[in-house]
Design a protein that fits this description.
Layout (H helix, E strand, L loop, with lengths): L13 H4 L4 H10 L2 E4 L7 E4 L2 H9 L4 E2 L26 H10 L4 H20 L6 E3 H18 L7 H10 L9 H26 L7 H6 L9 H14 L2 H16 L1 H9 L4 H12 L4 E6 L3 E3 L2 E3 L4 E5 H4 L35 H17 L2 E5 L4 E2 L8 E3 L1 E6 L1
Parallel strand pairs: 2-8
Antiparallel strand pairs: 1-2, 3-5, 4-12, 5-8, 6-7, 9-12, 10-11
Helix pairs in contact: 5-6, 5-15, 6-11, 7-8, 7-10, 8-10, 11-12, 11-13, 11-15, 13-15
């Protein structure tokens, strides 16, 4: 059977830095929801671009494995596999995920919500109303890095080290396959491991506590990980707790600028704010894709797939699926099915910290509305050169009081 070919390499970073990814994905959703790309910097891969097919692959972990290959389109960060719990299948995935999930229970989230509210108010109090500044550097990064430091009980004065390690661990681009980058990567990961090992050892010698590091070191599933496993899981937690929420916070400014009537709608009806927090994750899609690897031959959408082939789940496209989301390119604060987005994944690998991300986004929107602020971009934002994270790296803005 002739495979439908993907006419454009969806891993090309220019699609995302130039913000021209919508049309290629829309064409594929209409013409080839499952297609094959033979040539890319990361080798051949299948692309899944519709909401229903992404869900189907996510739910069949026995066929489409997270464990037999990397979780991104690249074969591995700096050429090495990272054995963290998201890159595992049950039962080991289940055991390790349970340890991390215990730090995100409803009672824990009630306490985190108070902390998020306090920190957001404090940060907003210091913003220069009426003057130009970078929203990413002044708001998105400090809020997410600060919350991550709190969840990990990481030394506050060292919290921006987490940002550096996160950016390096989440980098998916052709440069990561060079020897120069590999050396730099493992040097940084070595520094990260040394710092966290010292903190983990402190927790080991103390009674179990609520912070995530304590839960990890005192658990059977994660208390005796190898050095590489510790690096991998720490990197996963840092990236998951930082990059995705950061990029949604930045995307929010762009969305409200493009659709100013939605900001007015939120001001008139604050009950829409929780839904708007879901909608911005759908609209921004801060994680562009996840990748699985076939454990056996399979048939999907009428196509014959072979064991060992990589299959890329394009969340950024599934969240624009016209059959699920009406007028999908529009940011709609009242969208009735916004919660059907796949921005946090689906099935057993759905983001364990999704509720904390929702709290942070909800609080950010609420604080902007409470203060009567209109955050106005002052130029074109710069975008992350990555097919993995859909991010904004700088966004000059000015706050106008309404």
């Amino acid at each position: 059977m002739t495979r439908p070919l993907t006419p454009i390499d969806l891993s090309d970073t220019a699609l995302y830095t130039e913000d021209r990814w919508r049309e290629p994905f829309a064409r594929l959703r209409a013409e080839a929801p499952l297609s094959w790309r033979e040539d890319s910097p990361y080798g051949p891969y299948w692309s899944v671009v519709t909401h229903d097919l992404v869900q189907a692959v996510e739910l069949d972990w026995a066929t489409y494995s997270s464990q037999t290959g990397n979780i991104t389109i690249a074969e591995g960060v700096a050429g090495a596999e990272f054995p963290n719990f998201i890159a595992m299948d049950p039962p080991r995935h289940t055991d390790q995920r349970r340890v991390v999930a215990a730090a995100f229970t409803p009672s824990q989230m009630a306490r985190r919500e108070r902390q998020v509210r306090e920190r957001t108010k404090e940060l907003f109090d210091a913003l220069p109303v009426g003057q130009e500044f970078d929203w990413v550097a002044a708001v998105s990064i400090p809020l997410t890095i600060g919350m991550l430091a709190i969840v990990l009980d990481f030394p506050w004065e060292e919290r921006f080290d987490l940002r550096r390690w996160s950016d390096m661990a989440s980098n998916v681009s052709p440069e990561v396959m060079t020897e120069e980058y590999s050396q730099k990567f493992f040097a940084e990961m070595g520094l990260m491991l040394a710092r966290f090992d010292a903190l983990l050892e402190e927790r080991r010698n103390q009674p179990p506590a609520d912070d995530l590091l304590s839960r990890m070191i005192h658990s059977e599933a994660m208390g005796n990980l190898t050095a590489l496993e510790r690096i991998a899981n720490l990197a996963l937690i840092i990236v998951g707790g930082n990059d995705t929420t950061r990029n949604s916070m930045s995307g929010l400014v762009e969305a409200l600028h493009r659709f100013p009537e939605e900001r007015a709608r939120l001001a008139a009806d604050r009950s829409l704010i929780p839904n708007a927090a879901q909608e911005i994750v759908r609209w921004q899609s801060p994680v562009s894709h996840m990748r699985r690897t076939l454990t056996r031959d399979a048939e999907l959408a009428g196509q014959q797939l072979k064991a060992g082939e990589k299959i890329v789940l394009w969340y950024i496209s599934a969240n624009r699926d016209e059959r699920v989301f009406a007028d999908p390119d529009r940011f709609d604060a009242g969208r009735e099915n916004a919660r059907r987005h796949l921005g946090f994944g689906h099935g057993i690998h759905r983001c364990v910290g999704a509720r904390l991300a929702e709290i942070q986004l909800h609080t950010l929107i609420e604080e902007m509305i409470d203060r009567g602020w209109n955050v106005v971009p002052q130029g074109t934002p710069s975008r992350l050169p990555s097919p993995f994270l859909h991010g904004i790296t700088t966004m000059p803005v000015k706050i106008e009081a309404l």
